[in-house]
Design brief:
Shape: globular
Helix content: over 70%
Structural class: mainly alpha
Radius of gyration: 24 Å
Order of helices and strands: HHHEHEHHHHHHHHHHHHHHHH
């Protein structure tokens, strides 16, 4: 086909689209508008998967749902748009590549972290079979598959070069920075009130807790990009983004996010000072023993704290330990106790992943309910990644989950001191600290079903595996 013939065909197709879409709009059917976007995505999937991964990373912080937009959803399946349909497509691409290019992924398959992830997915499948709401569990399993297939499997191949890791980080940072600017501006119009901080990030985030989680999760990479951005203009850009994200974290009024950043800073100090694991274990055992020995006195002291959430930062921080009047804290405790009761009834296989919200209502005690509790139990999840796993997948599910997290972090921390390249060390440190923020935050909330958490988390795990295998190859060739 000549160049002139291709030109005529292109013009014909454009005219056909204009005429066809004009007719559809006249009939009040607007789906035709998305045809060029779909063609562009399909073209990227065929020709440049790396561009599609970068696009998804950029769009993830800005994704929203039909529910957030207030649009009627006739099929009843809630998903983040436009990212989750793209992730589904990337999952198909990943599976095709895994079968067609086994050589590319052979080292990934036999890595201990990959084995742990496989066991985790297998257990989710087993508990989906025995689930109290099988469709909910299958849907959650599929979402886990497309997150892991896209930003663990495909990202593993993509991240073989550091410049591609930087592309991912830049895309996510820029997308989140745009959301942060929007949120700060909206918050400013409300006088930076505490109550407004709960919803000004809508429609991009459903509430301030998920927003604060995403900010804390990516902040370590904000510092990394500020240090390793090579050009002056780019360095200035990432300095600005870092300031925006720090300001946004403070203004999010998300106590769990603040605590997770403190935990990450503590891990950073421990790793930099090379404090021995045996000493950490001794201190941890001492703290646990102290809490158990004086638990009655500690609980009485906490019950004396009547400081509720507030516009004042010092009062808002003080409200973290208020378990007597703060509705948010009391409701979280109500959800935790409900999760434990659910576990006691089905300790081995649980109720099925993604089913807590459908089952916890009758397991609430009337005297533990709060102003924000509902008899229908339609207000969300267990507010703990760990208790959610316990209730939904039984004690084996929680054990598998904890072992998987422990293996990821242990591998990364041990690897950190072995790396000789300073930039790779900083990159690995950013991954470790980002994961620490999330899995600390996970004691108080659970967001792994959200693209805004799962996309960066699995990408960080892929980076750890890439750096680990790169180091192993260097040792073999040395």
């Amino acid at each position: 086909m000549t160049k002139k013939q291709r030109h005529y065909i292109f013009v014909f197709l454009v005219l056909l689209f204009i005429v066809g879409n004009t007719y559809l709009i006249a009939e009040e059917k607007y789906w035709g508008i998305f045809i060029p976007f779909a063609i562009g995505v399909i073209s990227m999937a065929i020709l440049r998967v790396d561009l599609l991964l970068t696009l998804v990373a950029f769009l993830t912080p800005m994704s929203t749902s039909l529910q957030e937009l207030g649009i009627y959803n006739p099929i009843g399946i809630e998903m983040s748009l436009p990212t989750e349909p793209l992730l589904f497509g990337l999952m198909i691409i990943a599976w095709v590549k895994m079968f067609s290019d086994k050589e590319l992924f052979k080292n990934l398959y036999r890595h201990p972290i990959s084995i742990a992830i496989t066991v985790y997915l297998v257990w989710l499948f087993i508990t989906a079979i025995s689930s109290s709401v099988p469709m909910a569990s299958i849907k959650l399993l599929i979402t886990r598959l497309w997150f892991i297939s896209s930003f663990y499997v495909l990202a593993y191949a993509w991240f073989q070069e550091n410049k591609n890791i930087h592309k991912f980080v830049k895309a996510y940072l820029l997308g989140l920075a745009l959301v942060a600017v929007y949120t700060i501006v909206m918050h400013a119009t409300k006088g930076f009130e505490h109550e407004a901080a709960h919803w000004v990030m809508s429609p991009f985030f459903k509430d301030h807790t998920s927003y604060g989680m995403a900010l804390a999760l990516i902040l370590p990479f904000g510092f990394y990009m500020r240090k390793w951005a090579s050009k002056d203009k780019i360095s200035a850009l990432f300095s600005t983004i870092l300031i925006i994200l720090l300001l946004a974290t403070v203004l999010s009024y998300t106590r769990a996010a603040w605590l997770s950043l403190i935990a990450a800073f503590g891990v950073y100090i421990v790793m930099k000072l090379r404090i021995r694991f045996s000493l950490l274990l001794t201190v941890t055992a001492f703290v646990i023993g102290f809490v158990l020995l004086f638990q009655t006195d500690i609980l009485m002291a906490l019950e004396k704290n009547s400081q509720d959430s507030s516009d004042s930062f010092t009062e808002h921080i003080a409200s973290m330990s208020n378990v007597s009047t703060d509705a948010s804290n009391l409701e979280r405790i109500n959800r935790w106790k409900s999760a434990i009761r659910l576990f006691k009834e089905r300790p081995h296989l649980g109720w099925g992943s993604g089913t807590y919200q459908f089952n916890y209502a009758p397991y609430q005690n009337y005297y533990e309910k709060t102003l924000i509790s509902t008899n229908a139990g339609n207000m969300g999840n267990a507010h703990s990644e760990y208790l959610s796993m316990l209730a939904e997948t039984g004690w084996p599910g929680l054990l598998i989950f904890i072992v998987m997290i422990g293996l990821i972090l242990t591998k990364a921390i041990v690897l950190y001191h072995k790396l000789e390249d300073r930039q790779e060390q900083w990159m690995l440190m950013a991954c470790i600290l980002g994961l620490i923020t999330y899995f600390t935050h996970a004691f108080l909330n659970n967001f792994l079903d959200m693209d805004k958490a799962s996309v960066p988390i699995w990408a960080f795990v892929a980076i750890i595996v890439v750096l680990d295998q790169r180091h192993q190859n260097k040792e073999i060739t040395a």
